[in-house]
Amino acid sequence: MALDKVLVYAETEGDAASTATLEMLTKARELAGSVDAFYAGPHADAIAADLGAHGAGKVHTVDAGDALPGAPVAAAVADLVGAEGYNAVLFATTYDGRDVSGRLSVRADSPVISNAVGLALDGDALSVETVIFGGTKVVRSAFRSGSVAIVLVRPKSFPAEPSGGGAAEVVSAALPDVGAAGNPKILAKHVEELEGPKLEDADIVVSGGRGLGSADGFKLVEDLAGLLGAATGASRAIVDAGWVPYSKQVGQTGKTVKPNVYIALGISGAMQHMVGMKNSKIIIAINKDPEAPILAVADLGVVGDVHKVVPPLIEAIKAKQG
Ligand SMILES: Cc1cc2nc3c(=O)[nH]c(=O)nc-3n(C[C@H](O)[C@H](O)[C@H](O)COP(=O)(O)OP(=O)(O)OC[C@H]3O[C@@H](n4cnc5c(N)ncnc54)[C@H](O)[C@@H]3O)c2cc1C
User: Fold this and answer.
1) With contact defined as beta carbons under 8 Å apart, do 67 and 46 qualify?
2) Residues 36-60, mean pLDDT to the nearest whole number
């Protein structure tokens, strides 16, 4: 059994389709006979090749200009879902994904399942896996067949693999008038400055926790990451303490990462942190407490003070790199 039609809400990162969009398209191919995308923004043609290469037949598009997308775009998606009979609509867990999916839920009179990490078919219904209690329990919920399944998917839940398909056909969709709900405008956009690779896509991640001792201690993380060409991450403790921005937080309420190497400096390994990094290929942890939970999952654990272990490590790498 397969679903007839799945719609993936596409978003961009810079000028390209976001990795999360390509991950959802890849998974949707397994679930449905027909997969399309919906893109709200200008220049859908610029991402049509990438969307098509990952499985989208069509990309329906609207451009809401400088209007806050939530209300008008949700109305456009709802009209399309009604007209075309999509069985499921997949969104990535992003600010716009949350906004549009919630409003679509009201319009389509169908619930949203958020935080999905797995999707499968249960007969002719869509079954969704979510994790609870810091990733220790998996919950499977199925939408009743016949209802529109609306799902918010966590990035990095599936690999993004091209299908070899050609560019998706770009089709303009109608943007309904939603009255006063369409009035909020975006006045300015700020792109966060990024040094080094992106946390979610990096091959190597170096993360720091409260064991660094102070905001200045994060320099150890930055120096090590700089030498390794790694992205920097953090535990929530030091995000809450204001040492680093939230965009660096790894874990249940932060980002999910899956690098080849994850290096944790002074992080205890609370469940809520581990759920965001436990699928890393190799985990290296430096912690002065031999009982720290992170050492139980580490492939290489160093029991020691980060301030004593990491500086000589940095010097040794510098010497090796010449
Ligand atoms: C609903 C909810 C959601 C949450 N979401 C997240 C999330 O997304 N991400 C997240 O990270 N947390 C999250 N948390 C918080 C989580 O429970 C932990 O409190 C947090 O991860 C702890 O951060 P930490 O390991 O840096 O600090 P601590 O738990 O304080 O650990 C510090 C570690 O550093 C070690 N240490 C101390 N000094 C040194 C030194 N000099 N050298 C080496 N090691 C040293 C200590 O032995 C200790 O193991 C969440 C909590 C809740 C309730």
Assistant:
1) no
2) 97
